[in-house]
Amino acid sequence: MTIKDVAERSGVSVSTVSRVLNNHPDVSEAARSRVMETVRKLHYVPNNSARDLVRPQTAAIGLVVRGAGNPFFSGVIRAVEQEINAAGYTMVLHQIRSGEDELQAGAELARSKRLLGVILLGGCFDYTPEQTAALGIPFVCCSFTNSFGSLNKDAYSSVSIDDQAEAYRAVTFLIRQGHKNIAILLDSKQDHSISELRYRGYCQALLDAGIAPDTALVAEAGTFDMAAAYEGTCRLLRSQAEFTALFVIADSMAVAAMKALHDHGLRVPEDCSVIAIDGIDMSAYTIPTLTTLIQPVGAMGKESVHSLVDIIEGRGGNRHIQLRTALRPGGSVGAGPVFTSANDVKIKP
Amino acid sequence: MTIKDVAERSGVSVSTVSRVLNNHPDVSEAARSRVMETVRKLHYVPNNSARDLVRPQTAAIGLVVRGAGNPFFSGVIRAVEQEINAAGYTMVLHQIRSGEDELQAGAELARSKRLLGVILLGGCFDYTPEQTAALGIPFVCCSFTNSFGSLNKDAYSSVSIDDQAEAYRAVTFLIRQGHKNIAILLDSKQDHSISELRYRGYCQALLDAGIAPDTALVAEAGTFDMAAAYEGTCRLLRSQAEFTALFVIADSMAVAAMKALHDHGLRVPEDCSVIAIDGIDMSAYTIPTLTTLIQPVGAMGKESVHSLVDIIEGRGGNRHIQLRTALRPGGSVGAGPVFTSANDVKIKP
DNA sequence: AATGTTACTGGAAACGTTTTCAGGATTGCT
DNA sequence: AGCAATCCTGAAAACGTTTCCAGTAACATT
Lengths: 349, 349
Prior knowledge:
2 copies of one chain form a homodimer. By secondary structure, chain A is an alpha/beta fold.
């Protein structure tokens, strides 16, 4: 079942069939409909290998994801896969371990599989424009940060939320509820990661409310998994630091944190409020329901693919899209303690 | 950078290079080492499209998954991807909606992408040997059931747990704790699904303990997602049916069920014990910790790929592997009510 | 009527690989 | 020495597609 069979059955040449299949303008309506007819009738499916061989590259897009265990990423992966298929490409998924270098992995993948482009999901982007140019293909960073600020913005595309602003929003929400001693749980603030940005938003929100950030209230889990989050929360609790609310940088970590709080005899939200960012399915079913800023996973996947495909198909250059989250109030945040007017929290209007 | 360049630089023909690259025996040691040398030097990577074009198939394996939102599947997908890469193949992921037909989707995928084989993950296998033979490629059903029993066992491979036996084990665990009125929450028992097998195990366990299964204690969610599970549990509770324990066919549904119990003022495990099957990460962090039978996701992925690759590479035919779960006791199961000797539960030795 | 323009079409080359086939060199046997 | 067998090699065809190029037909313009 090749293009030749279709051509014969339709009474045209293979060239014409090819043109029909690729939506070329120079083909008569009569020929077009006749070809489409036989294609349907024969259940003809083009051979991608042959197509890819003659074209400069493979009609495939890579998705490099670090830490696919994160349920938040599952949602993005699902959306990305759907969008890539809808655009007529094939997705090549590649999961990397925490130690590996995503750009390295992306380049390797792109070379061996001759990809048109790569989407990097989750991580930290720490490369110079020269290094990215060496890749030779377009790529977009989805839910990613980079440590160079706006320096090399034209070396790649990106789709993400404004991590600092959203963290600011979450912490401000807690402050508005009357909380003053607010702890933060993150995986690590050392590298130029999303965690760092969210940590900055946390600090800024406190400062703007006239509260001095206290390093004793910063709990670093070390790695991004629930076991580490649980342990990190336990360490924070053992330290005897005083706080009435906890901001966690990810839903999955927040679930573990709530468990740790419970295991230490603290009630959520009476003894400690919890807020997080992500909006994974599961967080709607914790007890109490987690208050969180829901990331638009579907839109993130969609925009990532669109950005990449537009570049691949010659429509415009790199762009940087920032999406907004939606606050889902849950039972995990309660009112803060009653303060005397003397030490009351100042909230900017 | 083609095979031709390598041939020229090595002073041999393309045929010889091809033979070296494919480990053909008929090539001199001298030529072999010379070619290998230049391959390394030029960083030559064979063009898979060209290779696939001339070969009957693509060096790729498909993974068709229904309901990738299920966190249990995420783990399997991760393992499968790793194993496929390790075996030198490419994984092509395809997620289907609940309405779609997985064999249809698998066949379509296999044809359009010229796959060597397909792994079907999660669902119900309802085809006759003739239909599967029409596919023309080997496939393995991972975490799947089929309604034909052992009739067409040689038409495909499978890797799964013994769903009925494991459900039996879970329910028996509840009975041993003293529970007698045990409800079950499943997505649907109509089709020949995993749910049905687990439902049968549930019934059998009750019968073997001398308890008559009561249809009033069967809660059907309708679909496999947490919202439906929540609703299904609520319906069960509104029905005023009396039960002291709940067996849920999946961890993610159990999380939603616990939430529903809580929202109706019932405590777990004091008022109702909960046990499930799956062992997703999250279930270790519910409050209380979910008692569950942990499925060996890594082994499932690994065995699925091994089975398929063995067939692809000509080592043996279809095989059927059954793995065991591991019981993780959690706080979600407590002792049942105290019975008088008159209506005490009979437990088989 | 001749010419130019437009709209469409088919032939053929090209993509990079594998594999068949035939043949050349070397070796072993008589 | 002659012949067969063995081992290795290269030429060439094939895989299914896209695209360049040349060409035809119809139509409009002079």
